[in-house]
Design goal:
By secondary structure, the protein is of the alpha+beta class. The protein has helices at 8-11, 15-28, 52-61, 69-74, 86-106, 110-122, 129-146, 150-170, 186-197, 213-224, 235-238, 245-250, 286-290, 302-318, 326-334, 340-343, 349-356, 364-372, and strands spanning 178-183, 202-207, 228-233, 255-257, 268-272, 276-280, 294-299, 323-324. 51% of the residues lie in helices and 10% in strands. α9 (186-197) packs parallel to α10 (213-224). It is elongated. The two termini are 26 Å apart.
């Protein structure tokens, strides 16, 4: 959500915008329709101006600092799982080997099983696959040392090979990352941003509506740290006042729009490092965070992410003709025609509703002006 001009996207969101955004949403109330919805009683909450102390508290809680390449590169962000250096890996191997050699001789008692789980947790061995393979390797090596002869060892190795096939074909590994978030919830907005900021290699975003500055900054943060970001967005929503799509395209993030003005690109998902998927009903908007009943699933699942990745690539190829260059994005942001949908009264209810699908909170004046012209029968 930006200010009265699309050019504010170049400067970043100011602290005063936080106060203004919250006031706009308080005025909107209910389902976020605001006043002036044809007198049909949608969003009846009254608008109460914040006191000075409330404004100051809000600024402290959601203090905004513009994202710059320098800040993004300097910040230390822990990854989804522990990453081993040579020393840490050697330490983990030694502790596992010592434990297994002592435990396998006498049998695995309940206490020893619990201690084994503690070792797994202490060394963060649940992810990635290389950590799990290290654990399995050490378990096999320790067992082989206890077997009496080569024939028995070969039988055991054959058993392990067959067991791996069963595991691979019949089981999914326990997800290391699995979280469900529900909205409205301001704190969950920051949880989503924190997940996005962990990206190290790639980020594929497929999003219908994008006006949330916290998530916009998380995307910029990743991009400035060298993450290869790509965005697919809805062609209509991307061009409305307040959308972050053109700003992100203008700084060099490869961006494409769908190519059918009669339908919407209505997906809402993000793939991070081909490891973590964010998907659900949640649009990346302030209204979705503060007003709407929404859901978002954050999950690590190789098979599911593979399917989403394939789908993203199909869309990317399909929408290639609608690639938005940085120059084109800047042109659209600076064009005097930008936002003309706000200024012209819709010719019919059907036309209005088509446009309203993308009318997300921006500055109050153009939105209220449009709503005030809505026929009461809409």
């Amino acid at each position: 959500v930006h200010g009265d001009s699309i050019f504010e996207m170049e400067q970043g969101k100011k602290e005063d915008d936080v106060e203004r955004d919250e006031e706009i949403h308080e005025r909107a109330g209910g389902r976020g329709r605001g006043r002036g919805w044809g007198g049909r009683g949608r969003g009846t909450a009254s608008y109460t101006k914040k006191t000075e102390s409330e404004k100051e508290e809000s600024k402290k809680k959601y203090k905004y600092e513009p994202i710059t390449p320098e800040k993004a590169k300097a910040e230390v962000v822990p990854y989804f799982y522990a990453e081993y250096g040579t020393g840490a890996r050697a330490k983990a191997e030694a502790e596992i080997s010592t434990f297994l050699e002592a435990s396998l001789k006498d049998g695995a008692s309940p206490d020893k099983k619990k201690a084994f789980v503690d070792i797994i947790n202490a060394h963060s061995l649940r992810k990635p696959v290389s950590h799990i393979e290290l654990l399995e390797k050490k378990l096999s090596e320790s067992m082989l040392k206890l077997l009496p002869d080569e024939k028995t060892k070969k039988l055991f190795e054959s058993y392990l090979e067959l067991k791996q096939i069963v595991t691979h074909e019949c089981y999914d590994r326990k997800p290391y990352i699995l979280e469900t978030l529900f909205f409205p919830n301001k704190e969950n907005e920051f949880k989503v941003a924190d997940v996005m900021k962990k990206a190290k290699t790639t980020m594929e975003i497929c999003i219908f509506a994008f006006t949330n500055n916290v998530l916009r900054d998380a995307v910029m943060f990743a991009f400035y740290r060298g993450v290869k970001v790509r965005i697919i967005a809805d062609d209509e929503c991307a061009k409305f006042l307040g959308s972050d799509i053109m700003h992100l395209a203008s700084i060099g993030i490869p961006t494409e729009l769908d190519n059918n003005p009669k339908v919407h690109m209505h997906n809402k998902f993000c793939i991070i490092d081909n490891l973590v998927l964010l998907t659900g009903s949640y649009n990346w908007t302030t209204q979705a965070t503060k007003d709407n009943q929404e859901n978002l699933l954050i999950i690590e699942n190789e098979g599911v992410i593979k399917n989403y990745g394939k789908y993203f690539e199909e869309l990317w190829v399909s929408f290639k003709p609608n690639f938005v260059t940085p120059a084109k994005a800047k042109e659209l942001m600076e064009s005097p025609e930008k936002g003309k949908e706000w200024e012209q009264s819709p010719s019919s209810n059907k036309t209005y509703l088509k446009h309203y699908a993308c009318l997300l909170y921006t500055s109050p004046s153009p939105r209220d002006a449009t709503l005030s012209r809505m026929p009461s029968s809409a």
